């Protein structure tokens, strides 16, 4: 529905992934947003298997670096010298 409104214009620095990274995502929206960073707010060890592998693959395919609260705890984002900076409670996991 958001794409149909015509309000998605240009690219965005960050996207907050819907519904804890469930499989119910609109791939065309993430492709249109073209955000270099995707944040997924999800509880560690949740019973639903979020974020889903399909969603992580989708985000990777559109060029988004995924930051997950279940892996990094609190995530803070900011701009310094026109560059997006990331701070988190925990170090990223190996390869992340």
Automatic annotation (TrEMBL):
InterPro entries: Competence_DNA_uptake, RibonucZ/Hydroxyglut_hydro. It comes from the Bacteria. PANTHER family: DNA INTERNALIZATION/COMPETENCE PROTEIN COMEC/REC2 (PTHR30619), RECOMBINATION PROTEIN 2 (PTHR30619:SF1). This is Uncharacterized protein. It comes from Microbacterium suwonense.
